[in-house]
Specification:
By secondary structure, the protein is α/β, with parallel strands linked by helices. It has two domains: about 10-35 and about 290-415, Lyase, Ornithine Decarboxylase, Chain A, domain 1 (Beta Barrel), CATH 2.40.37.10; about 35-285, TIM Barrel. The N and C termini lie far apart (about 60 Å). The protein has helices at about 10-15, 15-25, 35-50, 70-80, 90-95, 115-125, 130-140, 175-190, 205-230, 255-270, 285-290, 320-325; strands spanning about 30-35, 55-60, 85, 105-110, 125-130, 145-150, 175, 195, 235, 280, 290-305, 305-310, 330, 340-345, 355-365, 370-375, 395-400, 405-410. The strands form two sheets. Strands 1, 11, 12, 13, 14, 15, 16, 17 and 18 form a nine-stranded mixed β-sheet that branches. An eight-stranded parallel barrel has the order 2-3-4-5-6-8-9-10, surrounded by six helices.
Length: about 425
């Protein structure tokens, strides 16, 4: 008989059948459920690890992971110095709405339009460009006092190939052999302050990899400073700090990792020799992924060439498994320790064969109407949800201080057509 899943930070919630049933009855399914206590704890733990290793640092939360304003406000209240890593005009807008200071907003676009660059100049304190063509478009608007460029050091790492964002196959960043000329052009154009950034991939669980990456960034930064005669204002290691989705994966030891990163940073920038650049990170998953689960109800069970457990949540509700073939733990609500007696694919009602939330997954026996919880969906869960097959997006609920609160209403079918113009016959 297959083994059952090991512990999860939110399994205590899944074990409370009555409480979860009450959530389903009150708010409906599918439903994104966030544990505010876990979210705050994750953020404070990360901040403490950085504070012990760096005297000058900035956490810029990667808004692409989750832009719910209620969650961002809780994070901002818990950590007033919180910054925002933005990659779209919409993310800049919500950063402003929740009160994240302009000087703590970093905008990293790619292949931006002139309109996007205009918005970024107006509402982001730090502008990070992906290519010299972006700078060319920027020059037609105005030259900012500070600019940063995204380095592609020629290597990258991620939990699977699709999320490796640096190296020879990545669409992002500037080759090291070309980047000096770009900084030279920016300096000659009147830019006075500079940053450098690198985001090399997502979901990494090897702390030593980040040491290797930071060493490559710092080596390049020092070479640029020597060649061009300036000192960087900030150096960003980007994001990509993973969480353990599978039982055999171990979480990052952030205290150990940032201890090593701090020592590496000081080996290039000795604070006793004067001011050094601010150290910046852009985390997403490690802050919010394991703070949420997706609550779904079994809508049907089909015995065919294999067993299919149909849910009222599908790839429109949670895209990552269909897009990346990612693994997410699934628990039976009320009995997460139940022995596994079936092997099934978990699918939704979308008219696509790729509509799978899990494949060949061992699981306890279930019946129609049972509730299941798909774990670790706080990052890139709702933010990737769609209205495909003309299906409304789900609701979101926050659990905090022993109470539940609706933080996003469930869409209605009528909402999907609220911005169309047509004449009904």
């Amino acid at each position: 008989m297959p083994k059952t899943d090991s512990q999860h930070p939110l399994r205590y919630l899944i074990s409370d059948r009555d409480a979860v049933n009450e959530l389903a009855q009150q708010y409906g399914t599918p439903l994104y459920v966030y544990d505010g206590d876990r979210l705050i704890s994750n953020l404070q733990h990360l901040d403490a690890a950085l504070a012990s290793a760096f005297s000058d640092y900035q956490i810029c939360f990667a808004l692409k992971a989750n832009t719910n304003p209620h969650l961002l406000s809780i994070m901002k209240e818990s950590l007033p110095s919180l910054g925002a890593d933005c990659s779209s005009p919409g993310e800049l807008y919500i950063a402003e709405q929740v009160g994240i200071d302009n000087k703590r907003r970093l905008y990293t676009g790619n292949y931006e339009t002139t309109e996007e660059l205009n918005l970024a100049l107006a509402s982001a304190g730090h502008l990070n460009l992906d290519d010299i063509t972006s700078f060319d478009r920027l020059m037609k608007i105005r030259i900012p006092d500070e600019i940063s460029f995204r380095l592609n050091p020629g290597f990258g790492s991620g939990s699977f190939p699709e999320v490796v964002t640096s190296g020879k196959e990545a669409k992002f960043g500037i080759q090291e052999v070309k980047i000096a000329e770009i900084y030279r052009r920016a300096k000659e154009s009147g830019v006075k302050r500079f940053g450098i950034q690198c985001m090399s991939g997502s979901g990494n669980l090897d702390g030593d990899y980040f040491v290797r990456l930071l060493t490559a960034i710092l080596t390049c930064a020092r070479k640029l400073e020597s060649e061009l005669g300036f000192t960087f204002s900030f150096i960003s290691l980007g994001g990509g700090y993973g969480v353990p989705y599978r039982n055999d994966e171990k979480p990052l030891d952030v205290n150990e990792m940032f201890g090593k990163l701090g020592a590496t940073f000081r080996s290039f920038y000795d604070p006793s020799n004067g001011a050094s650049p601010r150290f910046v990170i852009e985390p997403g998953k490690i802050v919010i992924a394991d703070s949420a689960f997706l609550l779904a109800r079994v809508s049907g069970i089909k015995e065919s060439y294999k067993t299919f457990v149909g849910l009222d949540a599908g790839m429109n509700t949670f895209l990552r498994p269909a897009l990346y073939k990612t693994y997410h733990k699934i628990f039976k609500v009320g009995d997460p320790k139940a022995p596994h007696e079936i092997v099934a694919d978990f699918t939704g009602g979308i008219c696509e064969n790729t509509d799978r939330l899990a494949t060949d997954r061992s699981f306890p026996n279930v019946k129609e109407g049972d509730l299941v919880a798909i774990m670790d969906v706080g990052a890139y869960g709702f933010s990737m949800a769609s209205q495909y097959n003309t299906r409304p997006r789900p609701a979101e609920v926050l659990l905090l201080n022993g109470e539940s609160r609706l933080i996003r209403q469930r869409e209605k079918i009528q909402d999907l057509f609220s911005h169309t113009e047509w004449n009904a016959s």
